[in-house]
Amino acid sequence: MKTRITELTGTRYPIIQGGMQWVGRAELASAVSNAGGLGILTALTQPTPEALAAEIERCRTMTDKPFGVNLTILPTAQPVPYEAYAEVIAGSGVGVVETAGRSPAEFIARFKQAGVKIVHKCTAVRHALSAQRAGVDAVSIDGFEAAGHPGEDDIPGMVLIPAAARALDIPILAAGGMATGRSMAAALALGAEGVTMGTRFMLTKEAPIHEAIKQAVVQGSERDTTLIFRQLRNTARVFRNAVAEEVNVKEREPGATFENIKALVAGARGRAALESGEVDGGLVWAGLGIGLMDDIPTCAELIERIVGECRDALARATALTAE
């Protein structure tokens, strides 16, 4: 496949593995890249900028294909040296950085100086336009179906993707609910030039999380995610487990603040759940697309299947419109 996204990333297919905390490690990123997509290391999964540099080098021993790094810039309980992480990325020789959270404007000049292409994750057209003005090379537009933080507008991909495609000059990737070749075909038809997938790559053999977590999520339907942090205006979509349900109850209590749920949603607790396989041990992030996922393939099997299904779906749609 050839789109502006494949030209930007240097990949065979316009398929990007989104950044995922605790999941975006060298094992997964290298497998995605070796299969023709763009694997992404998650910078803040690494405890220090120096550890990120080591992880980038480790990934290089596992693939000779392009891969990138995600840098999510969000308010945190403990200060994060974002500038130092950005400097590691800029000096590492990776070709693409996926930014998320607040605007990456303060780091754009440094990334461009190093020849790093910038893909910024957005949940609204207005944010995408702002990122375009700031100088990013592409945006990943996240619909309401997405895992993680889908914004506060609640706009699904069927509307958000074509709205972004109509407004922007730079290429866009569709994210949120991207799980099959049909999803990809729909995204391309709506104006995207590629897809970003998080949860679908989390449910692969190479994803470095416990098999029990993968099995629990893959057995879920489109009704087995829930929205938390709604009352805090920081909406997040996660897998529906005991911790997520408790968060929903506590945050609805009169006068509730983040302190009421802080212990439940701690990143260390979520990491421990992913590593131990204790499904109800912490937050497990997952998107609505789990309703379309029913197996745990290798990354190579998944990408080839998605590309094949996408071509078949586009051919079928074309045939339906033939005179």
Please name the defining characteristics of this protein.
323 residues; TIM Barrel; eight-stranded parallel beta sheet; two-stranded antiparallel ribbon; 10 strands
Topology:
Elements (H helix, E strand, L loop, with lengths): L3 H6 L5 E3 L8 H9 L4 E4 L6 H12 L6 E7 L8 H11 L3 E6 L3 H9 L3 E6 L2 H10 L3 E5 L14 H11 L4 E4 L5 H10 L4 E3 L1 H4 L8 H8 L6 E4 L7 E4 L2 H10 L10 H4 L1 H10 L22 H22 L3
Parallel strand pairs: 1-8, 2-3, 3-4, 4-5, 5-6, 6-7, 7-8
Antiparallel strand pairs: 9-10
Helix pairs in contact: 2-3, 3-4, 4-5, 8-14
Protein name: NAD(P)H-dependent flavin oxidoreductase
EC number: 1.13.12.-
GO molecular function: oxidoreductase activity
Question: Which parts are unreliable, with pLDDT below 50 for 5 consecutive residues or more?
Answer: none
How many domains make up the 3D coordinates? 2
What fraction strand? 5-15%
Secondary structure tally, helices: 14
Work out the helicity level: 40-55%
Distance between the amino and carboxyl termini: 26 Å
- Tally of strands: 10
Given this structure, which CATH class of the largest domain is correct? Alpha Beta
**CATH-assigned homologous superfamily of the largest domain:** Aldolase class I
Biggest β-sheet, characterized?
A: 8 strands, parallel
Strand line-up in the sheet with most strands: 1-8-7-6-5-4-3-2
Radius of gyration, taken over Cα atoms and rounded to an integer in Å: 19 Å
**Category by helix and strand content:** alpha/beta
Shape: globular
Mean pLDDT comes to 96
Q: What is the CATH topology assignment of the largest domain? A: TIM Barrel
CATH architecture of the largest domain: Alpha-Beta Barrel
Following the backbone from N to C, one meets helices and strands in this order, namely: HEHEHEHEHEHEHEHEHHEEHHHH
